[in-house]
Amino acid sequence: MIEAVIWDFGGVLTTSPFEAFARFETERGLPRDIIRRTNAANHFENAWAKFERAEVDLDTFDKLFAAESLALGAEVRGRDVVQLLSGDPRPEVVEALRRVKQHFKTGCITNNLPANAIGSSAGRALYVAETMALFDHVIESAKIGLRKPDPRIYRMMVDALGVDPNNCVYLDDLGVNLKPARDMGMRTIKVIDGPQAIAELEAATGLKLA
Known about the structure:
The protein has two domains: about 5-15 and about 85-205, HAD superfamily/HAD-like (Rossmann fold), CATH 3.40.50.1000; about 20-80, DNA polymerase, domain 1. Strand 2 (about 105-110), helix 7 (about 120-130) and strand 3 (about 135-140) form a beta-alpha-beta unit. Helix content is about 50%, strand content about 10%. The model has no long low-confidence stretch (mean pLDDT about 95). The chain is built from eleven helices and five strands; from the N terminus they run βααααααβαβααβαβα. The protein starts with a strand and ends in a 5-residue tail after the last helix. It has about 210 residues and is an alpha/beta fold. Strands 3-2-1-4-5 form a five-stranded parallel sheet, sandwiched between helices.
């Protein structure tokens, strides 16, 4: 029995920034995956983790990320990385969310950055606002000082929704963020692209979403 479907935002309801990372690395002649490797190293306490918990400002993040990436082989400024984060909308996944909302509770757990850290067009800001309005509850890392994959953030969501984690589906594009949800009993979906995510969500919920 499904009670709730819980979603990540970036990489699920928008395309993954990893594509932008790869283009940036190629254009600058940087080692492949240097940005992702820097993000993954010491992922609970690195520059990225501190920024998503709003423990450091943009200037500090810029310097910390540069030092951490240099230690792994090439300096990448944090400010440059921030500009690569805005993915493109996935309207077909948002439509699936609308249909899911008619049957189940919905929540969003997003690791995000402090307000105004990323410049945003009016169109993207509207897309984000309209999409966020579809959730019964939203948890943003930069607002609560806690980020995935800390198990406490998933517990906060199921408590807020009033549901049993064993009756939840959770979608995320990162395996490291899926594991705590799975350990709690949630059914998890690793999102690669829109059609794949929708197909797996249809199988999990029994709904027609495409």
